[in-house]
Amino acid sequence: MEQVVRSGDRKAVVAAAVTVVLWASAFVFIRAAGEDFSPGALALGRLLTGAIALVVILLVRGEGMPARAAWPGILVSGVLWFGVYMVALNWGEQHVDAGTAAMVINIGPILIAVLSGLVLREGFPARLMAGIAVAFAGAVVVGLSNSNGGSAAVLGVILCLTAALAWAVAVVAQKPALAHASALQVTTGGCVIGTIACLPFAGQLFTEAAEAPLSSISSLVYLGVFPTALAFTTWAYALSRSTAGKMGVTTYAVPALVILMAWIALDEVPGPLAVVGGLLCLSGVAITRSRSDKPVEPEDTAAQEVSSQT
Question: Which of 26, 158, 20 is CA-nearest to residue 98?
């Protein structure tokens, strides 16, 4: 998070910190609610709760609909991040523990860097390629650590990787949208789009909710209000005042927080090999974000000047 601090926008730092803590808690609550809700039903319930909360807040604030130019990014992030990501993550956490899922998901910043190189033509420096190799090796180790769980555990790792890819594409698409709409508008639009995309799971949600205990329903509501409505808004706020790559740095603390929370709440801790694999994943991400000492790029300087004036 040090790179974000240098932007001079303390509010963005606080927003990013809130996002990290709430997203970390989501892995634990998904694991708990997943005992009574199928992946699609849990995603729809979470998104529906979040969408209701966000629409109410949007109406109270009187911000209205996002500008037309923001909708392409909102649509992509809504389908991929609020839809595909959540279903894949929910499904993956039925086969691997919360800490392992968080460590695999944290390959996302590397994927964001790759997509930024392709879409924004930032190139592929040596550190980026080395980091990708290390992180991929980490993902393989995590998969091997779960091999005693059979193909189901390997499937869990693959699903988490799928979620990470969906997240990366969505972030690259979301960034331009924030130039035309507020963080609340972008988040609300994405959540509503994600809810619509998950409507095929409505039948499962109603059936499972009728039989689920209050604890699981409470977990679902929590996921919708806090890690979704609140955390995605604070993420968008911080992202609008920083770069996608720098915001990826803020997610590095998530796996450690998840392991701590899962240990306290669920009494589950990844095995030693999974921890080694997770550390490799994080090391790979750190390598991609490391830079040699050199002058600040003009684009970064301009962004910092704008940030300091807001």
Answer: 26
